[in-house]
Design a protein that fits this description.
Structural class: mainly alpha
Number of helices: 9
Shape: globular
Largest sheet: none
Order of helices and strands: HHHHHHHHH
Number of strands: 0
């Protein structure tokens, strides 16, 4: 635990997930200051490998609003940023998107959509769209699911 700063530079694409999983599993078993160190180490590793949803989970576990906003701002992919907005909405974390993304190349309509996603305004519509895509709007009988001969 005292040498975690040496861990990040030697990780590669094949090992960082296992290392972060191990560090996360150790968090419940360590005392108060060390658990935050473990979570911050996982956060920096996930950010290094651009794993934004996992980085957001670490920031949410740390309950650090500055880190949450920084992870949100650092994510450059539009679709992943929308996923992060859904995650923040699920945890009822809401902040002014225009202040966080100030200076970024994001349209006003995209900022409005992100704010709506974080405030769970479009959650029902998203679930209905997913149900239509998965073709589960109508109840099915067992014969429809299991092909009988």
């Amino acid at each position: 635990i005292e040498q975690l700063q040496l861990l990040e530079p030697i990780l590669d694409d094949g090992s960082y997930q296992r290392v972060c999983l191990y560090l996360q599993s150790c968090v419940p078993f360590v005392a108060e200051p060390e658990d935050g160190i473990l979570l911050r180490t996982c956060l920096s590793i996930f950010r290094k490998f651009k794993q934004w949803p996992q980085a957001m989970q670490m920031a949410l576990r740390l309950i650090d609003m500055d880190l949450i906003q920084d992870v949100f701002k650092s994510c450059g992919d539009v679709n992943v940023r929308r996923q992060l907005a859904f995650m923040l909405g699920r945890q009822q974390v809401l902040f002014e998107v225009t202040e966080v993304l100030d200076g970024e190349d994001v349209s006003a309509s995209e900022m409005e959509l992100l704010l709506q996603l974080m405030s769970n305004e479009k959650l029902n519509k998203s679930f209905l769209q997913l149900a239509r895509e998965l073709d589960i709007m109508e109840p099915k009988s067992p014969e429809d699911i299991y092909k009988t001969h």
